[in-house]
Write a structure and sequence with these properties.
The structure is a homotrimer of 307-residue chains. Chain A has 307 residues and is of the alpha/beta class. Chain A is 35% helix and 15% strand. The longest helix of chain A has 21 residues, at 282-302. Chains in contact: A-B, A-C, B-C.
Chain lengths: 307, 307, 307
């Protein structure tokens, strides 16, 4: 069996995820061995919404596999502005390229694209629904440090309502046994109910407001941005803000193997003094994006292994 | 003899066009045989006006020939905004690249560029004058389906006054014997007089308002966008709009070999139900742009055959 | 010894500059011999401020060395707009690429980047401080025509206060013996005092307002833009403007070996009639940018020679 598109973590099996991340580890260990895997192939970047890390790490991955890319990093000045439908834009892209990376502000854009496209469509984040390749690189980073996909205690922290990395990370953790997720957020930004329904019965979880109480027992804290503008009353924001800023002091009591992740960009949620601590793995996490995306591109261009 | 630049269809012979499109057919049949034709070569994209299909299909063509590209997809943030002349921008581009694709909002920009440039300049559409590479891919699509360049009855439909694909398509059809063009548009958007003077005596044509009357006898209908903002009185627009929207019903009475083309993007001129009909060839037409532009780039970079 | 980053001319020795420019001459003479020097390597363009010539000539250089590039040509739509720090953007870029070219509007941005980056950072112009690669291609052009780095009389003309090419060119000239700089500008736009302190005792210089008096004795005139908006009183601008516009008449009395340079884009400082004169070397200067930047990229990617 081959998977044709990567739109959601929900359609993946834990076997697939494991094989993919093992392939990424090969890419990281011996990148030169894969330098021709995408030779003569073209990636189409269709970024209907700004992105830096996702777009550039996909491009870096494609180039490191010997391929190349075209497309747009913003819909400004494209036929989208003339009123072209997403379906027609996809039909154009699949005529010009061998694989599509799509970022879109509309929920469900990925599914529409996958239905129409003759070439694989990889979601680079759509709506506030999902960001599957981010979840895969998050899990890769966790696996590299903890050596396992299971028996992990993970706090996902910050804006759990709007952050599109949150559902995908929750889904990927629920594919493996004995994980536990602590959803840690201010009341206004609790994880959406449909995300909880999706993982219900598949992974243990708990919702809480105070990160500190779980810090000593978790293996990973995954921080996301809490944006002021999400709070109708600015006073509410000021009240919660500080409990969601990670400083060296916050990490005083963590396990020895504890690691701190963030999908980046950060804007104040982790103080700069934390960067030098051994727990800070968010820059390595960003770098891992290249290897994981190399493995993703290789899979969808070449189907090098069976699911 | 070598042709140095591709600015207008007017300077081409039917021999040249035929050879070029035969070369495109080779590219389509055996793309891998041409994978190194532009190795080490650089295409400069100079897009002073938005474009998606033209830019990306040129880039796809260049990459498929083993070359690469640089440039800009909008003049925002370039030295053009600091007041640099087109001539100076061209002198820069020919120092950095081996071939230039220019799209510009000003009539005559292509000619100016060709006079100055040391490397071939290919027009990607200038002013509302011409769009020669579009006409070549249009003709390629017609040729693939009808097997001939001559004895064709073609309706060009919609905004014939401002659409820059209209003059180029008319000129290329007038290079071959026994073609007939039906210019079908609302009164306000009739084809410009200088276009008619150009083809006068070279190709038979007729101007009309009602597409339906010619539909049963034509081989190709070429639809273009009718933009509301072209009509001083919105009532006039509403009156004509519907006669220029193609639905499955419109096509009830066409010849068996009839095909429907559109340069795209479309915004309502062809209903989505038409997409599945065998006559709908506009997506294939867009794809053909890659092969035709491969042949164009190969010709102007390598002069692989004599005119 | 290896130089790790190229942020300022101040940290370079004349030996280094000479070797680099000799390497550029090799690149110009036999570009094909270097076609694989950056094979598999990636350049990150981080352009926080518009640029055409610098960005595109770096890209052309990278492609001609067999490498490739990714990045952004404007901070619009990047995580910078979400408030990401320069340090974090650099940490991202060095994970995705092998070398970084940075243009930034803030003074000192280059130094910050160099402190953080694991891969070489090349300044593509920062603040109004420096533009080291421009100075190197300026000197390359002078050397090609005069055959020497020393015993040169050079007038730097126009806006010496804000132009970022002025300090770098002054510094590079001060590395070699017996050069003399004539800083020629309206009073309001005199060269900044810290630039003079830097070169004090290293190179002879003179400040003046009237270019004409030195024209007969100089080897090179380096023209920069005088922008109207720099003058609080528009009358002051009108008074000086004409003495800073080069026409064929201006050049009536120059030495036979005299050459005229301009970093471009120009907006009226050199009349178009000058372009055909043998002294006009600014287009060649722009083209030289490719060879000099090839040599720079080769040095910082491969360290092919010792300093």
């Amino acid at each position: 069996m081959q998977i044709r598109h990567l739109i959601s973590i929900k359609h993946l099996s834990n076997k697939f995820v494991e094989k993919l991340l093992k392939s990424a580890r090969e890419m990281e260990a011996h990148p030169e061995a894969f330098a021709d895997r995408a030779k003569g192939k073209i990636l189409a970047d269709l970024f209907f919404e700004p992105s830096t890390r996702t777009r550039l790490s996909f491009e870096s991955a494609m180039l490191r596999l010997g391929g190349n890319m075209l497309g747009f990093s913003s819909p400004k000045g494209t036929s989208v502005e003339k009123g072209e439908s997403l379906a027609d834009t996809i039909r154009m892209a699949h005529s010009y390229a061998d694989i599509i990376v799509l970022r879109h502000y509309i929920e469900g854009a990925g599914r529409v694209a996958a239905e129409i496209s003759n070439v694989p469509v990889i979601s680079g984040g759509t709506g506030s629904q999902e960001h599957p390749t981010q979840a895969l690189l998050d899990l890769y980073t966790i696996w590299k440090h903890h050596g396992r996909f299971s028996n992990l205690k993970i706090a996902i922290v910050g804006d759990l309502r709007y952050g599109r990395t949150v559902p995908s990370l929750s889904y990927v953790l629920s594919l493996f046994p004995n994980n536990k997720i602590y959803f840690c957020s201010p009341k206004q930004l609790r994880v959406r109910r449909e995300v909880l329904s999706e993982i219900e019965g598949k992974v243990e979880y708990e919702e809480l407001e105070d990160l500190e109480e779980v810090l000593p027992k978790i293996d990973v804290a995954y921080i996301t941005r809490v944006q002021k503008e999400r709070f109708p009353d600015p006073q509410d924001y000021l009240k919660v803000r500080d409990s969601y800023v990670i400083t060296p002091k916050t990490l005083g009591n963590v396990k020895e193997s504890f690691i701190l992740l963030h999908p980046l960009p950060r804007v104040g949620e982790i103080s700069y003094e934390v960067d030098k601590l051994p727990q800070a793995k968010y820059f390595e996490q960003a770098k891992n994006g290249v290897y994981v995306r190399m493995a993703i591109l290789d899979y969808f261009l070449n189907y090098p292994w069976e699911v």
